[in-house]
Amino acid sequence: MPHHPTPEFPEHLEALYRQFPFERSLAQDPLSCVRRQAHDPAAAEVAGLFTATLAVGNVTAIRGAVAELERRIGGDYAGFVERPPAEHRAALRGYRHRWIRGDQLALLARRVAAARAEYGSVGELFRAGLEEGGFAGGLDRLSGHLRGAPGAEAGPRGYRALFPTPLAAPRSPCKRLTLYARWMVRRGFPDLGVWSGVAPSELRIPLDLHVHWIAYHLGLTRRKSRTWRTVEEVTDALRAVDPDDPIKYDFVLCHTGISGDCPKARDLAVCGPCVVRPDCLLWRRRGGAS
User: Fold this and answer.
1) What DSSP assignment string belongs to 196-213?
2) How far apart are CA 141 and CA 146, in angstroms?
3) How far apart are alpha carbons 172 and 284 in whole angstroms?
4) Higher-pLDDT residue of 156, 4
5) If you average pLDDT over residues 78-85, what whole number do you get?
6) Quick one: which of 107, 162, 265, 288 could link to 283 by a disulfide (CB 3.0–4.6 Å)?
7) Closest C-alpha to 47, from 28, 29, 66, 65
8) Cα-based torsion angle of the residue sequence 103, 108, 111, 116 in order, rounded to the nearest 10 degrees
């Protein structure tokens, strides 16, 4: 039998959002690296794209990878991408984070510079696709430009796989690019809101393992795999709670999992104070009282 949250779920989720310790969790989020550039929208959107691309693995490793990147480029994201390609390659030679390498980031720098030259900003590139094909169209336009047009230089091994699109790869949740869009579009804390002309209602959930696990057990999706259809399903469920800004709950859901506030097991000591406990499949399946 399908699991659904209680009718009171919107109030429960909003209460979780209101009481959440944002400052505590921001220190454990890659977004904290990008917020240092918030005073300069041009730098922020470039820093955000590089940081989102590196958002693989645990946050300690990601923050270390971003810090090493900033050391190599002198902390000047916008200036770095405008340098000659030879300088990109020299600065990033030998760089590695998980499967992401310096030669891939050097090509990313060139593609970002090309986007800025053609559209004025990465945000305008995304918005051009959004106007033609909605959010998926915006991601497709952004991803396609970063990968390169048909016939363009394919780039180093593994480069194109860094930038999936929901139109060409619907089995991917496109988590890192949806996360990047959230950072750039939402104006509510902790996001930066440096892109104009894109409504927060257009955003889709950045579906990482933590968000998917919690969303499934709250009855926001019945899908057990992280695909673009799952992204749309969870987003639709959150849009029913807040039509204007459904993705404002993403940070809370993600860090509820990362922090251990959700133990991912029925534990009265931890689950007892949780305001969404009445909606949780683990709790209700075993006959727990609400």
Assistant:
1) -S--GGG------HHHHH
2) 9
3) 30
4) 156
5) 97
6) 288
7) 66
8) -140
Helical pair 85-92 and 102-119, crossing angle rounded to 10 deg? 150
Distance CA 191, CA 248 (A): 9
Per the CB < 8 A criterion, the answer to whether 25 and 258 are in contact is yes
- Please state the separation of Cα 133 from the chain's center in Å: 20
Q: What is the pTM of this model?
A: 0.94
Residue carrying structure tokens 């993705």: 247
The contacts of residue 177 (CB under 8 Å, 6+ apart) are 52, 139, 142, 143, 163, 164
The rounded radius of gyration (Å) of the Cα atoms in the chain is 19
As a whole number of Å, the end-to-end CA separation of the chain is: 19
Q: For the chain, how many residues are written?
A: 290
Answer yes or no: are the C-beta atoms of 213 and 204 closer than 8 Å. no
* pLDDT average, residue stretch 38-51: 96
Of the candidates 143, 73, 82, the residue with the CA atom closest to the CA atom of residue 117: 82
| Model confidence pLDDT, tens digit, residues 83-105 | 999 999 999 999 999 999 999 99
> Looking at this protein, which amino acid is placed at residue 284?
R
- The owner of tokens 């429960």 is 12
Look up residue 6 and give its amino acid. T
CB 68 within 8 A of CB 74: no
